[in-house]
Design a protein that fits this description.
Blueprint lengths: L6 H4 L11 H14 L18 H12 L5 H6 L2 H11 L7 H10 L6 H28 L7 H22 L23 H17 L1 H5 L12 H16 L5 H10 L9 H9 L5 H29 L5 H25 L22 H12 L1
Helix pairs in contact: 2-3, 2-6, 2-7, 3-5, 7-8, 7-14, 8-14, 8-15, 9-11, 9-14, 12-13, 14-15
């Protein structure tokens, strides 16, 4: 029968392998503060939530909240250390007196406490940015949300706020931009191709039947389509309407031929049949396509920023620059989405004024007029 370890033995931090280099920085900072508690006043950018390990955060909170002891008395007895351990164990029962001694022993130099704190702050910023990026990617692919666009944009706003916070805490410096890794296949956006293709076909057919309405849909671009042929046909339609040319299925078919869209496997009869199968309105199908493109972009942006944070060589400033560039792609789509959902203003004609009655002329004029009429 296997032996059941005691709670303190099971949770002893001495037995945990250091998961990341920041583990050593956390140990060094806590050891420095245990040795010289007065240095806690210099640590302003780190709080208990900044630590990667819960027990480390609980210990830091106890050090920060308890009054610092007199340096001479602290050098002679361990009463303050005992009080810190008792306060921290209320939130992290696995802490032991032996682990506090380990922290003191592994601290290289207590006077480097501020440098250790900066390392912890940097790693916490990376983890916070990763969490926001993961939330954006997950929200963009959550099909159960009643308002997916609103939820995705709210997650994007939270991510942008996190990036702004990083920019304010970490000064810029010269250096290369972060590399943009390709999303892994497991993180690729999930798209119902059949449904998306049907929506694109219905848009093309209804836009061919209602070119005047399609001409107002400048918020939709060829990059929003998932099928290259459909993107090319939409380009044909928009170019025809902007030139003021007549639009019908045969004219669009001819335009597609001029642009080289009738390649192998694309028959003219099939294309003509696609353009006459109308249902609904161009505005509705266009919004469906744009929503799909916006959510796919949000998912891709979240995945890209998360990949930035996975590279430990990426500095906080590089994270800021790379994240802002990624969010700019989503912002451009957001502008077009708002334009699509903003009703067009109707220009009211100015109210016509009643003609003013003619002003009476001088007496002699009226008299002369009467005399002319009488004649």
């Amino acid at each position: 029968m296997p032996r059941t370890p005691a709670p303190d033995e099971e949770n002893d931090l001495d037995d945990l392998p250091p998961p990341q280099p920041v583990h050593y920085a956390e140990q060094a900072l806590l050891g420095a503060l245990l040795l010289e508690p007065h240095r806690v006043s210099d640590i302003v950018a780190v709080d208990p939530g900044s630590f990667s390990h819960h027990a480390h955060g609980a210990l830091f909170a106890a050090i920060r909240d308890l009054p610092s002891p007199d340096p001479l008395q602290h050098a002679q007895d361990t009463s303050w250390l005992t009080a810190v351990l008792a306060a921290a164990r209320k939130h992290a029962r696995g802490l032991t007196a032996s682990y506090l001694h380990t922290l003191i022993q592994v601290c290289p130099w207590p006077r480097h406490a501020s440098a250790y704190a900066r390392m912890i702050e940097t790693d916490h910023a990376r983890r916070a940015l990763r969490a926001h990026a993961q939330r954006l990617a997950q929200t963009a692919t959550d099909a159960t949300l009643p308002q997916p666009i609103d939820a995705a944009l709210a997650a994007a706003d939270a991510l942008a706020a996190c990036v702004d916070d990083l920019a304010g805490r970490f000064p810029p410096h010269p250096g290369p931009l972060p590399r943009t890794p390709a999303p892994s296949p497991t993180n690729a956006p999930v798209t119902n191709d059949d449904e998306a293709i049907d929506e694109e076909r219905l848009l093309l057919a209804t836009a061919t039947a209602q070119p005047a309405e399609a001409e107002q849909m400048r918020w939709l671009t060829v990059h929003d389509f998932i099928h290259p042929l459909h993107a090319g046909l939409w380009q044909c339609l928009t170019d025809l309407t902007r030139r003021g040319a007549p639009v019908d299925p045969v004219i669009v078919l001819w335009e597609a031929q001029q642009r080289g869209l009738l390649t192998t496997g694309v028959e003219a009869a099939d294309l003509l049949g696609l353009l006459v199968a109308t249902a609904g309105s161009p505005q509705y199908w266009g919004e469906c396509i744009l929503q799909r493109a916006l959510l796919a972009t949000a998912q891709e942006v979240g995945t890209r920023i998360e990949a930035f944070t996975d590279d430990p060589a990426t500095t906080p400033y590089q994270l800021v620059v790379g994240s802002r560039r990624a969010l700019a792609d989503l912002h451009a789509l957001r502008i077009r989405w708002n334009r699509a959902n903003t009703p067009a203003r109707t220009t009211r004609p100015a109210p016509s004024r009643a003609p003013a009655p003619p002003r009476a002329g001088p007496p002699q004029t009226r008299a002369s007029s009467v005399s002319r009429i009488s004649r």
